[in-house]
Each structure stands twice: as structure tokens, then as C-alpha cells.
Specification:
This protein has 85 residues and is mainly beta. The chain has one domain: EutN/Ccml (OB fold (Dihydrolipoamide Acetyltransferase, E2P)). Helix content is 9%, strand content 44%. The protein contains one helix and five strands; from the N terminus they run ββββαβ. Strands 1-2-3-5-4 form a five-stranded mixed beta barrel. The longest helix is centred in the last third of the chain and has 8 residues. The radius of gyration is 12 Å and the shape is globular.
């Protein structure tokens, strides 16, 4: 589990079939002090997180594939919750 801030969304004209119906969000990972730390990642989202929101993301590939419902999906990061501020 990693704290992150949504900084935008990704648009793709061609994407893996398992991503159909999922939003692709660009998230900046944060440290415990909520300062940017590490790389920006692309995460799938179905809970409705928007730009500027603080979220919890998870990088468990197996969990992401189970969540998306496709054991062969290339997904790695997914939004698991929106943090109340």
C-alpha cells in the first residue's frame, strides 16, 4: 500500500483488453510527510478518484489481476481508496 496524489489521467487509443471499462490515472507516490517521492505511476481506478485527490494505491500484481478479473492482465497498480483530508 502506498500513499499517492492523483496528478492526471492517461488516455490510450490502444490498450490491453483487460483495461476496458477502467480509468487510467497518473499518480505521484508520496512519503509519510506527503512530499513527492519516487516515480509517477499509472494506476487503474473504478472508484472515481480525481485530479488532486489523495489516494491509497497498491502494487500487488496478483491482487490487481484478481481485482480486474483477468489472470493475464499486465496491470500492476490500482487505487484502493480515497483518503479523507
Amino acid at each position: 500500500m502506498q500513499l499517492a496524489r492523483i496528478i492526471g489521467h492517461a488516455t490510450s487509443t490502444v490498450k490491453h483488453s483487460s483495461f476496458k471499462g477502467w480509468r487510467l490515472l497518473v499518480a505521484q507516490t508520496l512519503n509519510p510527510q506527503r512530499a513527492p517521492e519516487g516515480d509517477v505511476v499509472c494506476a487503474i481506478d473504478k472508484i472515481g478518484a480525481g485530479a488532486g485527490e489523495l489516494v491509497l494505491i497498491n502494487s500487488d500484481g496478483l491482487g490487481a489481476r484478481e481485482y480486474i478479473g483477468d489472470p493475464k492482465s499486465p496491470v500492476r497498480w490500482f487505487v484502493i481508496g480515497i483518503v479523507d483530508e
